[in-house]
From TrEMBL:
Aldehyde dehydrogenase domain mapped to chain residues: 28-494
GO molecular function term, any single one: aldehyde dehydrogenase (NAD+) activity
E.C. number(s) listed in UniProt: 1.2.1.3
Enzyme class, broadest EC rank: oxidoreductase
Family: Belongs to the aldehyde dehydrogenase family.
Any one of the GO BP annotations: carboxylic acid biosynthetic process
Entry annotated with the keyword NAD: yes
Protein name (database record): aldehyde dehydrogenase (NAD(+))
Domain of life of the native organism: Eukaryota
Catalytic residue list: 266
UniProt keyword terms in alphabetical order: NAD, Oxidoreductase
């Protein structure tokens, strides 16, 4: 394999060979016109390296490779059992390389190393392993119709799948999409986010090592407006799976219409977390903190709107502020004690700051944080204090709009009815959480809330065995769990006439 790569060393002393090319047909190639993107370490604001980006020409090549692989007996005729074995080998290789991969996530994204290692990388390997088990269990039905006839269904791959990945969980989001796509026998052109292009390229080498034939997985970096749109509008791509912002999803949906692509979209959120008077306050506070402040608040289903019943409102505010002060230690992501690293980019950092101004202008009560932190990296790095606004009302922009940072709004409600009304007062519907010790109320709320996920007495508890996705403007389709297979297989019906004569 012709290798385009550089040697990199991270602040934790780890050294690795970083591919920099486009991964097409199991080979590393340069872009057709030398197009490159540069990735920045958000902790130091220094350039890490540049990698090749894919032009429209390169996307044509990647899609052609994926199309050839789809029809190549080496992949097409492989049994589900053998596809599963390859996926299982890939899961194993991810585990074996998890320290290097976690290091890359931290240097490129800014997330704490311990989180990358024990969170992202476990999820990445286990998601691939989970779907390896499904590869030989994707089958149809026999449908009895009349005495002369019957029908059966088979589940076939959708075809060539374009997968567009966000920057908040670069490898885990790739695993969510690669696992079910490959289990079902599809081929893939995957585009990582331009902010975090590195880890997927290292994963590419593991894909080769796991034995996947050329063209089954192609990984190409590039900007959304160039590489992403070339993929989304390509006439020979059968499906687009996207995770990212709602605005981009709307653009992708339009582009995907050129050939009526199958789509899965997982987009934004402004997820509510409701705390009733009877809740276990300490638990509610701890989960509410994790639900918005983990991963630097850069989580699509973060519970970023906390609704608290009047009687315990003041008490909750005090306890929540105390929790943030005590636990949300902002610092160098390679330090073990760090809870919150830098925001991923200057653009995200500026966005979070701009919402502090918006909240203040709207006269919400800033009860904690919001200041840039300059003393961590000698004035460098996109570090910001976590932000808590209280007394926020549903009319305010900070109640409605997704910030995607360590930024939470807290509002007060009186009755259960008010809580549901406020919770559902959103264009989004991704996550939601309810804290109560009243069993029947918990399930009543779970039923009435408009969201793809409800957490009862927890928040942001993710699991690859459980379907994930949104309603309203939070997305279309489901990923993960058995439901994730539906997004990557298409049902063919075969009618059989067994009557002996016409
Ligand atoms: P964010 O605004 O949080 O950076 P985006 O939704 O813009 O999130 O990005 C998520 C992914 O979508 C990235 O891989 C990005 O490159 C890609 N993307 C952005 N714009 C487009 C576009 N116009 N067409 C296709 N992909 C895009």
């Amino acid at each position: 394999m012709k290798d385009l790569s550089v040697q990199l060393t991270a602040p934790n002393g780890r050294t690795w060979t970083q591919p920099t090319g486009l991964f097409i047909n199991n080979e590393w190639v340069k872009s057709s016109n030398g197009y490159m993107i540069t990735t920045i370490n958000p902790t130091t604001e220094e350039e890490i390296t540049s990698v090749y980006g894919a032009t429209e020409d390169d996307i044509n090549k990647a899609v052609a490779a994926a199309r050839r692989a789809l029809n190549d007996p080496a992949w097409r005729d492989l049994s589900g059992l053998d596809r599963g074995k390859m996926l299982n080998r890939l899961a194993q290789l991810i585990e074996e390389n998890r320290e290097i991969l976690a290091t890359i996530e931290t240097i490129d994204n800014g997330k704490p190393y311990t989180v990358a290692l024990d969170g992202d990388l476990v999820e990445t390997a286990e998601t691939i392993r989970y779907y390896s088990g499904f590869a030989d269990k994707v089958f149809g039905q026999v449908i009895d119709t009349t005495s002369d006839k019957f029908a059966y269904t088979v589940r076939e791959p959708v075809g060539v799948c374009g997968q567009i990945i966000p920057w908040n969980y670069p490898l885990a989001m790739a695993a969510w999409k690669l696992g079910p796509a490959l289990a079902c026998g599809n081929t893939v052109v995957l585009k990582p986010a331009e902010q975090t292009p590195l880890s997927a390229l290292v994963l590419a080498n593991l894909i080769v090592e796991a034995g996947f034939p050329p063209g089954v997985v192609n990984i190409v970096n590039g900007h959304g407006s160039i590489t992403g749109s070339a993929l989304a509008s390509h006439m020979d791509v059968d499906k687009i799976a996207f995770t990212g912002s709602t605005d981009t999803a709307k653009r992708i949906m339009k582009m995907a219409s050129v050939n009526l692509k199958n789509i899965t979209l997982e987009t934004g959120g402004k997820s509510p977390l409701i705390v009733f008077n009877d809740a276990d306050l300490k638990e509610a506070v701890e989960w509410a903190h994790l639900g918005i402040m983990s991963n630097q608040g850069q989580v699509c289903c973060a519970t970023s709107r906390i609704l608290v019943q009047s009687q315990i409102y003041d008490q909750f505010l005090e306890a929540f502020k105390g929790q943030v002060k005590q636990v949300s230690k902002v610092g160098d992501p390679f330090e073990e004690s760090t809870f919150q690293g830098p925001q991923v980019t200057k653009a995200q950092y500026d966005r979070v700051k701009s919402y502090v101004h918006i909240g203040q202008a709207e006269r919400a009560k800033l009860i904690f944080g919001g200041k840039p932190i300059n003393d961590i990296g000698n004035g460098k790095g996109f570090f910001i204090q976590p932000i808590i606004f209280a007394d926020v009302t549903p009319q305010m922009r900070i109640f409605k709009e997704e910030v995607f940072g360590p930024f939470v709004v807290i509002s007060r409600f009186d009755t259960e009815e008010d809580a549901i009304k406020m919770a559902n007062d959103s264009t989004y519907g991704l996550g939601s959480a309810v804290f109560t010790t009243n069993l029947t109320r918990a399930h009543r709320i779970a039923k009435l809330i408009e969201a793809g996920t409800v957490w009862i007495n927890s928040s942001n508890d993710g699991d690859w065995r459980v379907p994930f996705g949104g309603v309203k403007q939070s997305g279309i389709g489901r990923e993960l769990g058995e439901a994730g297979l539906d997004a990557y297989s298409s049902i063919k019906a075969v009618h059989v006439n067994i009557k002996s004569k016409l």
